[in-house]
Write a structure and sequence with these properties.
Strand content: 5-15%
Structural class: alpha/beta
Largest sheet: 10 strands, mixed
Radius of gyration: 22 Å
Helix content: 25-40%
Distance between the termini: 52 Å
Number of helices: 11
Mean pLDDT: 86
Oligomer: single chain
């Protein structure tokens, strides 16, 4: 039977749906020929906090007196006072709702990087999420994601190199290199059909030239590789689903969607199938109204996030040494709270990092603090940035994953080392 390209792609899409996954797989023609092998066994987890998290109320600059002048109802008290921040050092503290991460800050496996951003922030959700996901400033609409460029410019150690634990593949993973979007590993168990899973795979392999014995498929060789990668990826993910899973080391995940995503991330990492990139979304951070200081929407979301991160780290145990988790967000929030007991779209922000990929330091909060005095603010309203977000992401991929192609990942940007991560 003759099969054209459109029919083939429809069949691959159908196969993905059957297995409960959403594979994004484009042509491999644009891959760098001399792609560098990544470091085996290492994983980067990118957590996108959509909406623009208020980093000033995550890692609190209690040593900057202007913080308290600008935030009459939202400010978190200094360490040592009632309901005060957990002391990280003489200048910064951790919001009480993020207390689950305090032990990891204490032992050096967690750190924060403050005043992160870039020079052309537009304060638009759409444009800034696009910029942070593509790593391209201006012209990002036609760009693939920076994590997809990582995949395209390196060689991995298995067919399931990148997974978004989501209904849809996020922008940062879209492009020519293959990546998967899954709701959870449990969704991948093969449904009951009249055709066995092995028979289905073998039939697809024969139909789409995924076996070397077929010498009449030169014109379709690229699509055949696509089918092979998709089928092998679904096979491995299905195998993980059927094996079942129990968290280790006394880790307890809460019964909410965020915790379930982190649980699935730990499960994929411990399955040891070569998954080097995992992406997780956590939204709800656009806190214009009734943000909440100690109680309310913001601290509740922060507690949900940080408890999930702590359970994830505990579950991994020694495997955390091979993992680096970083958080990203659209932008920071205004230094001054607004008239609706919230904060508006701002400039620089705080990023959190967790795992063995961190460079050891006696400083739990890294980066250069730019200050909250009126003359130090961006346009008189926002925290200035001192570290470009692309430098952080370039270091994560270069030092932790072992991909040296930073100019390809972040075109038009001259990368500077942040000192945050170790090789």
């Amino acid at each position: 039977m003759q099969t054209n390209r459109r029919q083939f792609l429809k069949t691959v899409a159908g196969t993905g749906a059957l297995y409960g996954i959403s594979p994004w797989q484009g042509t491999a023609a644009d891959l760098i020929p001399d792609a560098t092998p990544v470091r085996k066994g290492k994983t980067l987890v990118a957590v996108f906090l959509r909406g623009g998290i208020d980093g000033l109320n995550v890692v609190v600059p209690h040593g900057d007196r202007y913080y308290y002048e600008y935030r009459s109802s939202l400010a978190i008290a200094r360490p040592g006072r009632r309901d005060g921040a957990h002391e990280l050092d003489e200048f910064f503290g951790l919001h009480p709702a993020a207390s689950a991460l305090k032990p990891f800050f204490d032992d050096g496996s967690a750190a924060a990087l403050h005043a992160v951003g870039y020079a052309k922030n537009t304060r638009s959700h759409f444009e800034e999420q696009d910029t942070w996901e593509t790593g391209v400033v201006g012209g990002s609409l036609s760009s693939d994601g920076w994590l997809n460029r990582h995949l395209a410019s390196s060689a991995g150690h298995g067919p399931v190199r990148a997974v978004a634990i989501s209904d849809n593949l996020p922008r940062m993973l879209r492009g020519d290199a293959p990546a998967y979007a899954i709701r959870g590993v449990e969704d991948l168990a093969m449904p009951e059909t009249h055709t066995s899973p092995d028979a289905l795979r073998n039939a697809l392999a024969r139909a789409y030239c995924t076996t070397p014995a077929d010498h009449h498929c030169e014109a379709r060789a690229l699509l055949a590789r696509t089918a092979s990668a998709t089928l092998e990826g679904t096979r491995q993910l299905e195998s993980i689903a059927r094996a079942g899973y129990e968290p280790a080391n006394g880790a307890e995940y809460a019964d909410n969607a965020t915790a379930r995503r982190f649980r699935e991330a730990a499960r994929l990492i411990k399955a040891d199938i070569g998954t080097e990139v995992i992406q997780i979304d956590h939204g709800g951070w656009d806190t214009h109204n009734n943000q909440g200081g100690l109680t309310g929407g913001f601290p509740n979301r922060l507690r949900e996030l940080t408890e999930a991160m702590a359970a994830f780290a505990t579950d991994l145990g020694d495997k955390l040494d091979d993992v680096l988790l970083v958080t990203l967000s659209d932008f920071g929030r205004t230094v001054r709270e607004n008239g609706s007991a919230g904060t508006d779209h701002g400039w620089a922000n705080c990023m959190l990092a967790l795992g063995g990929g961190l460079a050891r330091s006696d400083k739990p909060v890294r980066g250069t603090w730019t200050g909250l005095a009126p003359e130090q603010l961006e346009r008189g309203r926002d925290l200035q940035h001192s570290t470009d977000f692309r430098d952080v992401l370039a270091d994560a991929t270069a030092l932790h994953l072992g991909n040296p192609n930073s100019p390809f990942l972040f075109p038009g940007h001259e990368v500077a080392n942040t000192g945050l991560f170790k090789a």
